[in-house]
Design brief:
The complex is a heterotetramer, with 2 copies of chain A (462 residues) and 2 copies of chain B (488 residues).
Chain A (H helix, E strand, L loop, with lengths): L7 H11 L28 H13 L22 H7 L2 H4 L11 H18 L3 E2 L6 H16 L3 E5 L4 H11 L5 E5 L9 H7 L4 E8 L9 H10 L3 E6 L17 E5 L15 E5 L11 E6 L5 E6 L5 H4 L12 H38 L5 E2 L8 E5 L4 H10 L6 E2 L10 E5 L6 H21 L10
Parallel strand pairs in A: 2-3, 2-4, 4-5, 5-6
Antiparallel strand pairs in A: 1-7, 6-7, 8-9, 10-11, 11-13, 12-13
Chain B lengths: L28 H4 L16 H12 L22 H8 L1 H4 L11 H18 L3 E3 L5 H18 L7 E5 L5 H8 L3 E5 L9 H7 L4 E7 L11 H10 L3 E6 L11 H4 L3 E4 L19 E3 L11 E6 L5 E6 L16 H37 L4 E2 L9 E4 L1 H7 L3 H10 L6 E2 L8 E4 L7 H20 L1 H5 L12 H6 L9
Parallel strand pairs in B: 2-3, 2-4, 4-5, 5-6
Antiparallel strand pairs in B: 1-7, 6-7, 8-9, 10-11, 11-13, 12-13
Helix pairs in contact in B: 3-11, 5-11, 6-7, 11-14
The chains are: A alpha/beta (462), B alpha/beta (488).
Bound molecules: pyridoxal-5'-phosphate (2 copies).
The site of one pyridoxal-5'-phosphate (PLP) has 15 residues of chain C, from helix 6.
């Protein structure tokens, strides 16, 4: 294909206008020794060919429309109302850029204002920005913000925070001076406030937890906030915003910064991206908020309008004094979430969240009926839960794959002590019949192992 | 027409969504989760499906966009976003796959990533590529963390300074700071090159790196680029190449061949993934071999199976890696689009992009340089920077006014007031996907406005006149911040 | 901004499309086809992909549509077109199947058609349905051909007249004529019912049929419908029910139960398939058993396979059929949408549509009947007809002016000057998918315009004031017809 | 799902406003004996469920993205550029109606004007309308128009016109008095002008041919026009407009009315509809042209604009005097074709047509290498051709289906004398490898038959 409209005649006319005889002269200022006009990539394809190629590549993946999936762990399979894609697919939204010129960008600006409002309502926080790259990088920026706000250097990071998020924080702050203190999780799957207290000191800028946490469990944020605030640290909470359709929002429980992964709100799994970093905090921290912010104001005729505001915080103007370098963000994903939240609305988000909760609890209950399988934690959970298995998790997942099911997340990857455990997730998209099939496979595997008496690599349960 | 907020369209009890009834036995909620965890109220909008559709469709029409309007926003490469890219990214086999699916079930995705890594490495003249960074700025962070890891690992821990031209985009200094470096700004000379003597006097054993944008944000190619890069290397520093403007270089010279050690690509600029009203972007990073060990984990690798067929997999065994910079593997949806673009236009297309983009820019510059001051009058690359100072001095018409007036002529304004070192800057990047006819129409408008600025400055100062919304009170927006809707 | 014609954007040698090279051996063209058959010139546009996208995207924005605007076009049932319908119709398993594929390879398509036939029969109270007709008018033609076949087959060849109320849509008389009948127009009485005595005096053994729209295009339900239908049946005539306005009847009464013998459904009205700027429509026809033998071939049927499972197939063995009315099986893409709609809202939704549509119409009528004359002041159904005669007489403001002024208020005008028997008719159909808030906003606009017509008639007479294009010279369009672009 | 936004409170408010106490009273004027408020259709589904249902139904069809297809016969598998669907999917186009109010419908009006222009350019006719339902109904309307224009009652219909089109004409005119005379086709697959001459008489309104005809062959339109015009009849030609990317347009060969099926121009096969009826003719017949017409004119400010014009021809105004009852048409399909033609343009349409021609001729040549298979006609053809087979066509198609190929059209359905024949079609979408696979299957079937000596139902060739 070819997206360059200039014909040879056009090219000649332009060259003539600028007094050149060949396009090569346009590059006279390049060092000849470094010129290289040939690129070793495949030749151009026609639209028919490229479409066929991409279809074939895509069809060599097992897509989740055709494979029941019990993976969560930071990326969720939820229903995306048709309306969301129709709106997001409007060229006016996807082929425009950052609304630097508000008079011709009110569409984007108003939707961002609505997005900020929705995130505040969902989290019960005061202010929110226009988005971050994803949940992990939002959490890293929150930790940096907490360090700046408190002028302290230690981040207390719960081990029940998503392992990849913890890695990202580590990467982000390796250039800075503060350090991370991992904190173990107890039998309830949550963080004991007393335990947190024992780690707090004058240098702790913030305590970082996830809600629901990586194991699906629900920490007592209120109790944690009390403890954390006693030493002047901030409570930073990474949320699954969809869960907030049902759960008490962290803003009502004492959180100072709420970040999260917006993907469950109308964004497809897309093999891990693009997703949507949420970032909300208290009004007093407005000048510490990273990223873009849209505000409502009035125009010369007194009409309501929207603009990018507080731009003096940003790297455009502050340059080396900026605390974050984020520039382009996830605006279109924020739009998707805005449309999603408007569409499902008050009643719908609650319904979706309840369906997730109910399906996950049904599955958990059924799994526990299989001899040898038991839940690792006894605290309340939302739509994910950890199962200790009498058969190696990898083996179970292979067996599930044989019947077309994408199984759970193998926790041994990140938690050696949980190398016999799978993290299962259920959402409104999981059919009861598929859950029953999954349980049936576990039952067969369990029975086979019992029969053979074979020792699997997974830890046998007591 | 003014569009109310979606909240103002809400009516109690109205609903768009319909969800299925639970298939599982329904037990009381508090048997599943303690009541304390259940929120009392969820103050979201209550609207019908048509309300939602009409609201956002109307809002969409309040934007101009590439698909309706020439959008010569300098440094943003607002080129045409092919529709076929969008179709590809929406295929269920790409959009509906989970990042933790077994690798065997996503070989197509992995192959696409592997090939994209390979193509980008070739295009940048780099030895290895990570696709993980989510944006240009994120790529800068990734790259500079690798620079730091490199120096640190060599015990070269005294390197504290990063040199950055004064023309650089704000993300460059902000990134260097985030990584813990001190930023030293290097001025430009009057040909728009880096001031070589200033650079030389800033050199020293404590220089960690130079971050340089190629071509520069003046739209110029540094005529002594090899000397500049050589000088940094001589003191043991590394060179970070900001590839945001790389469109100009396609088919002409590769960053790696110029001596750049680490660089980022902007898939949303050079590789036509859509800008989406501000994102999602994607900022893969390419490195020379010396930095490859530090790339974020995982990278996509390939090996032969027993039967000789190829298998793609994630290589996590990277002990010297800086770690992860983002959850999962990067903005995969953008990778699909960029891959589609590269395969669509192929080698011959890519090789032609730079030339076509640069020709368009030079033609437009030629047409406008009489009516507006030109920052440096020499061959530009993908873009050029005019200055509105002549207009400002003559009749008080500012660059902002010129930009607003362009809206009345049916164009999206160029980037203005950047680079910040240029007075009343107007930074114009036409891209290669615009036709000569469009360039001419834009030139006519710019010339007409220059005339208006002389003859009827008030007309320009109060522009735009054709939009629903006039200029907005940005001061009030900060003084009395209204950043969200609140329930009554 | 004015948008040039695509031809005016053309530039020699420019091209958007790229096609693959032939995979087969390339032989000289004249070995394949004699040169005389090969055209010398093909004067199509030569434009780039961005040209095409920008041209049509800009043009699109020159339309108002349901998704942006309340569109109360009477008799057109401009209700919301669900997005999920569109997704369904675009699934490759529906859009990418050939009409002559073996039936075994398209069982899903056949099942959908079979089920849709069944649902429509149930909804209309009919015994059998054909999905073949492409539009309402096409359904009329199909239905009236069956009426004719029925009479002819019985040797009842003297039936020459078709009775049609004066309020009928123009397609009704045009259809009757196409089928070879003489049309006799029957007046309405002052309650908007068919004038029963006029009807009775028109009856006779040569009456082939009555074509009647239910509810009528006055938006009224004929209070003596059973008598009317009974009278036709008494003389051996059949009753054709025009179902264009059937939205009002959903969940209230079925055409078949009223005695209608043959009817059409407008999938693009009652069943939410989009109007597409004028089409594609779809006009399935339902019949009572006496007409079933005449249905076009094929109809979709179902049988049990040996293993008990169901198999769907086309039944072509219909010797008394009127034949085919369209190539293939009808507008399948529209069937998918209508099927999706029916399954989405289900029985409980369909049963509620009529009530909700009629309530909206009556509420709006109540709000407007003070400011405008009402044709007949009684309970309306899906729509109501106002008359602008009061305004016309008072200040010379015509209904056309009122309609144009509504555009300035952000609404699509209602249907005007139809039914033609009503002076200065304004026919308003809000549909059930519009909210009370929208109805109120529209009512406020109509009331404001009524006031403007009194107080500032010129403002109304020169409307619209907010559109890019003003009123167009329709006389010149006929006098000096310019119906196509011609190469220079 | 539910698209009715009125809440119970809204309903109550509206009822109160009109003085009713229950919605049932709105229907007081309906005869109680005929009331029926219950409908026996399935219950409502949520969006998740309905989407799943439709996906499953669609996936029980063998779609042509995954099955090489050699069917043509009036519906063609061509590439549809991505741009076409993006434009056609814009709500402003698909959720508006007939442009009765030109001030708010210039988008639709201008695209129709462009469509009319493109059809005129492609066919080399003077004027074209805004569309008919499909090729078949357009042809029927053309026959009626010819009868009206000439005031004659006989239509001479070539048997090489699509069988379904011929059936549709028969259905359309059964209420009128004119009759149809089928005309046989000779060994070249085309109509012999002398033969036509022998059927002409003073009552013949028009001669109707297809170009390329149903067998894929190319009639000599010029010669036919000469003969037809001698008796004052009109030559009506039904075209495949895509073929006109290569073929001499009928307007240059003496056609008086050109109709056609626009489906090949950017419209998916969709199991037979919606398609696009094309209708073009000479300027002098403007008042006989059925359907909608858009004209260019000027507005009050002197600006160019577009309106529906010549509406006095239409049933809205002429009512029982109208010669056609068409009202809604195929506007959105016309838009698709407009975008398609603009996109492929001058060079592209020619290229597509050439690829079709080349692929079809390659396939024809290969098929003829198989013993026992031979072309039925010896005249020039475009991208379809008739093959006489030594094995029953139905058997061949079954064998092709076994390897995932959708075979040819079984001509025995319509032409008993061709019950051993298949009509094959190739377009730019057929891969050489698939054509070779098809030929290989024919070869195997032919060989098996030869080996077994079995007598098939198909006529054995000489
Ligand atoms: C020169 C330059 N560098 C870096 C960036 C940052 O890229 P991103 O917005 O993708 O983070 C930009 C963005 O406009 C830029 O122009
Ligand atoms: C009452 C009535 N009957 C018939 C028709 C014709 O339907 P179609 O336009 O689908 O041919 C219409 C169209 O508006 C109508 O309103």
């Amino acid at each position: 294909m070819n997206y360059t409209p200039a014909t040879p005649a056009d090219q000649a006319r332009m060259l003539r206008a600028i007094g050149l005889s060949s396009p090569a002269e346009l590059f006279d200022d390049l060092p000849p020794s470094a010129r290289r006009t040939h690129l070793d990539v495949p030749r151009a394809l026609s639209e028919i060919e490229v479409t066929r190629l991409l279809r074939e590549l895509s069809e060599s993946n097992a897509d989740l429309a055709h494979h029941p999936c019990f993976l969560g762990a930071g990326s969720y399979v939820h229903y995306i109302p048709s309306v969301v894609n129709h709106i997001v697919g409007r060229a006016e939204f996807f082929t425009s850029y950052t609304p630097y010129q508000p008079e011709v960008s009110q569409g984007t600006l108003q939707t961002i204002y609505e997005f900020q409002s929705l995130i505040c309502l969902l989290t019960e926080m005061d202010i929110a920005n226009a988005s971050m790259y994803d949940g992990a990088s939002a959490l890293a920026e929150a930790a940096i913000m907490a360090a700046n706000v408190t002028d302290r250097g230690t981040v207390l990071l719960a081990s029940s925070v998503h392992p990849e998020y913890r890695q990202v924080i580590r990467t982000y702050v390796q250039g800075l001076k503060f350090s991370l203190v991992p904190d173990p999780v107890d039998q309830s799957g949550t963080l004991a406030p007393e335990h947190v207290r024992s780690h707090l000191n004058d240098d702790v800028a913030c305590v970082v937890v996830q809600y629901p946490n990586f194991f699906g469990c629900l920490d007592d944020l209120n109790a944690l906030a009390d403890v954390v605030h006693q030493t002047g640290a901030l409570l930073v909470v990474a949320v699954n915003p969809l869960a907030l359709g049902l759960l008490t929002p962290p803003g009502a429980l004492g959180a100072d910064v709420v970040v999260g992964e917006g993907q469950p709100l109308g964004i497809p799994p897309s093999y891990g991206g693009p997703y949507l970093g949420l970032f909300a905090t208290r009004e007093k921290y407005i000048r510490h908020l990273p990223g873009r912010i849209v505000g409502m104001t009035t125009d010369t005729r007194g009409q309501r309008g929207y603009v990018l505001t507080f731009q003096t915080r940003e790297q455009h103007i502050r340059r080396e004094k900026a605390t974050s370098n984020i520039c382009s963000n996830e605006a279109l994903c924020a739009l998707a979430s805005t449309v999603y939240l408007a569409y499902v609305g008050k009643a719908g988000l609650r319904q979706v969240a309840e369906l997730c909760l109910r399906n996950a609890h049904y599955l958990a209950e059924q799994v526990q009926t299989v001899p040898g399988f038991r839940l690792a934690f006894d605290g309340p959970f939302f739509n994910e839960f950890v199962v200790r298995c009498p058969v190696a998790p990898a083996t179970l997942n292979l067996r599930l794959r044989d019947v077309g099911i994408i199984g759970g997340y193998e926790l041994g990857r990140d938690y050696p002590a949980l190398n016999d455990a799978l993290l299962f997730c259920a959402t409104e998209m999981n059919r009861r019949a598929d859950m029953d099939r999954l349980v049936e496979v576990l039952r067969q595997c369990g029975a086979q192992r019992a029969a053979s008496g074979a020792v699997e690599t997974g830890r046998a349960d007591g | 027409m003014a569009e109310p907020l979606i909240f103002e369209r809400s009516s109690p009890g109205r609903a768009a969504a319909s969800l299925p009834a639970p298939e599982v036995p329904v037990v009381p909620l508090d048997e599943l989760v303690p009541a304390a965890f259940v929120r009392a109220d969820l103050p979201l909008p209550e609207v019908g499906e048509l309300d939602v559709v009409r609201h956002f469709t109307r809002l969409s029409q309040k934007n101009v966009c590439i698909d309706t309007t020439f959008y010569p926003l300098g440094s943003c490469t607002m080129k045409y976003n092919p529709k076929v890219n969008e179709d590809a990214a929406r295929l269920p086999g790409f959009a509906q796959i989970h990042p933790y699916q077994p690798e065997a079930t996503v070989q197509g995705a992995l192959q696409l990533m592997y090939d994209l890594q390979t193509y980008l490495a070739e295009i940048g003249g780099m030895d290895a590529v990570t696709l993980q960074p989510a944006a240009g700025a994120h790529g800068e962070l990734t790259g500079m963390l690798m620079v730091r890891a490199y120096h640190d690992e060599r015990g070269d821990v005294e390197r504290k300074r990063v040199l950055i031209p004064d023309s650089a985009h704000g993300t460059n200094p902000a990134t260097a700071t985030m990584v813990g470096y001190q930023v030293q700004s290097i001025p430009s000379d009057d040909r728009g090159n880096l001031d070589l003597s200033a650079l030389r006097s800033a050199l020293g054993p404590d220089v960690a790196a130079l971050m340089i944008t190629i071509p520069s944000t003046f739209g110029l190619f540094d005529e002594r680029i090899l000397e500049v890069i050589g000088a940094i290397h001589e003191v043991g520093g590394l060179v970070y190449g900001d590839g945001a403007n790389m469109n100009a270089m396609l088919g002409q010279a590769r960053f790696g061949d110029l001596g750049v050690d680490v660089m980022h690509f902007n898939l949303h600029k050079t590789f036509t993934t859509p800008h989406g009203g501000g994102g999602p972007p994607a900022g893969p990073v390419g490195v020379k071999a010396l930095l490859a060990p530090y790339l974020p984990t995982p990278v996509v690798a390939r090996r032969a199976r027993a039967d000789g067929s190829l298998e793609y997999y994630f290589d996590y065994a990277r002990p010297r890696s800086i770690g992860k910079i983002k959850a999962f593997y990067g903005n995969f949806g953008m990778m699909v689009r960029a891959y589609t673009y590269i395969r669509s236009i192929g080698a011959e297309g890519l090789e032609h992009v730079g030339e076509a983009a640069v020709l368009n820019a030079n033609y437009l510059m030629e047409r406008l340089k009489g009516a507006y001051d030109l920052y440096v009058d020499r061959r530009c690359k993908h873009e050029f920077v005019l200055s509105g100072r002549r207009q400002r001095r003559a009749t008080g018409v500012r660059t902002l006014d010129l930009a607003k007036r362009l809206i009345d002529y049916g164009f999206h304004p160029p980037t203005i007031y950047f680079p910040i070192v240029i007075e009343e800057a107007i930074m114009i990047e036409p891209t290669e996907t615009e036709s000569l006819e469009t360039l001419d129409e834009f030139a006519e408008a710019m010339l007409a406005i220059a005339k208006e600025a002389e003859e009827n400055p008030d007309l320009v100062k109060h522009a735009p006149h054709t939009t629903e919304i006039g200029r907005l009170d940005e001061v009030a927006a900060v003084r009395r911040p209204n950043l969200r809707w609140k329930p009554a």
